[in-house]
Amino acid sequence: MFFSEDRSQFFRPLTSKYREQILECLRLLYERLYSARADYGESLQRDQVIEIFEEALARAPQLESGDYGNETRFKSEREQASWILNQLLEYGWMEKQVDQATLQSTFPFTRVGRMLTQSLSEMGTASVRTRHRNTRNTLNALEAFLSRGEVHDLMDAYEYSERIISDFTDVIAELEERKRELVRQVETQLLVQQATDHFFEFMEKRFQPDVSIRLSADSVEKHRDAIQAVIDKIRRKRKEFKREAELKLRELAPELIEPNRSVLYFVLDAIEIRMRNAAELMLPALRRALQSFTKRADIIIRQLSYLTSQRNNSVVDVCRELAQLDRAQQDALLVCAGEELSGLHLQWLDPDQVRLQQKRREQVLYTRIEEAGEVEEDALRDVATQQQLDQAFITHNEGLHDYLITAMAGSNKVSTRDLPLRTARDVLAMSHAIETASYQAVDSDYQFVVTPTGETDTNEYFASFDVFDIELIKKSDTESESSDL
Fold it and tell me: Is the pLDDT of residue 183 over 70?
């Protein structure tokens, strides 16, 4: 449990009116300990931590608070810095370590405090992050595992593939936040120029280095086929290679172990599914979010152009100058203006282009709720029994696919007489085994081929059944055979 022992009130310091100051103290201390400015050979003592906190207090404001938080009034910033240090020590953000030789105390972060402070610090920094390389990192890690057989490379690919989805989600969320910010800023005409400046700054500093690479060099559509090819090569490796990798994966990631499931194939299938989701779901969603954002920015630019044109409009000045002239001069100027506008051609609208739109009738919805009558217990029992029977005998293609893959046990062919029958689900799957010929995944390079042998057999569940051979082959092989015929 996270909220246990000394972490029972872990986030208490960030709920008072001093929360912004405490957060700035944490950020500055983290920068002093772990950034490029840090002196890794030095441990901070109490006076040094207090000085860092005093510098942070001079930067951060104190938030107005109504009913919650500590209402203590401090005589100086040093007194407040000492109080903040005690709060962080009490609630588990920092810890006190005493050197047994010199009896001097140092005040580093706790492990949990350092991890959370790192996330809070990264939110407000503009440092360079290569978030757009996870697709290429996945491909490189898979190729390294294929060549060297090191399972750590495979787990790296598994982790990188998970970050692809999270990176897409972060960019989409950032675009939506930027769009809402633009909407808030254009509500006031005075902020239109500022909103436009923010838009162009975002497009130059965020879109160009990250999103453009994500849609081109690091596009999941570009590397998806290469990653799929590497996964297929791993699946076709020798049994000794896969057996050794399976054993090492079970030692390295015991949380992935489940009965009757290969950890190696589970990791490969997970990477394949994540790449498919990134290419078919997240990439179109990113494009839609970017299109919506650019449309909103286009509205702002048009509004800015309109306001600029209105700002330079001199009609009022011309009218004021005409009012200062006598009647003869006014007539002469207006005649000259009329001659200049004589080239304009005016005409009536075509009546055929004028259409009267019919008003749509609003559909009336009746939302009155009537009390249902009493239902007899026998009818409820019959319905529940029927539902249980329907669910008991339901089979689906995905479950049948997994059952046959498990029964093949590393080979590409299995006979229906050799299918395992351990549970009732296995019996149902065996009875529907020949239906695999009709289930062919569109996005897979493999397919099942069912061949009748003309033989019959029997077991403890079936009095007699026909024997079929079920084989998993590549689609390209089937297409080449059909072309030869």
Answer: no
CB 400 within 8 A of CB 435: yes
In which order are the strands placed within the sheet that holds 446-457?
Answer: 413-415, 465-474, 446-457
Question: Taking the CB of residue 470, how many other CB atoms lie within 10 A of it?
Answer: 22
All structural domains of the chain, each given as residue ranges with its CATH number in brackets, are 5-123 (1.10.10), 131-311 (no CATH), 396-484 (no CATH)
The CA distance from 368 to 203, in Å, is 52
| Cα Rg of the chain, angstroms | 36
Residue 417 near residue 438, CB atoms below 8 Å: no
pLDDT tens for 50-108 read 888 888 888 776 665 544 444 556 778 888 888 988 888 888 888 888 877 777 888 88
Q: Which of 118, 72, 75, 93 is nearest to 7 (CA)?
A: 93
Q: Is residue 212 a contact partner of residue 126, using CB atoms and an 8 Å limit?
A: no
> DSSP class of residue 396?
-
What SS3 state is found at 59? helix
Give start and end residues of each alpha helix (H) in 124-259. 134-148, 151-185, 192-202, 212-214, 220-235, 239-252
Token digits of residue 197: 């400046």
3-class secondary structure, 454? strand
Does 41 have pLDDT greater than 60? Answer: no
Amino acid 129 reads R
Instruction: Tell me the per-residue pLDDT of 457-470, one tens digit each, with 9 for 90 and over.
Output: 888 888 888 888 88
CA separation for the pair 164, 219 (Å, rounded): 11
Q: Which of 132, 130, 161, 133 is nearest to 230 (CA)?
A: 161
In whole angstroms, give the CA distance from residue 209 to residue 131. 10
Query: Looking at residue 94, what DSSP letter applies?
Result: B
| Residue 109 DSSP symbol | B
Residues 6 or more apart whose CB falls under 8 angstroms from that of 282 comprise 164, 165, 168, 169, 172, 220
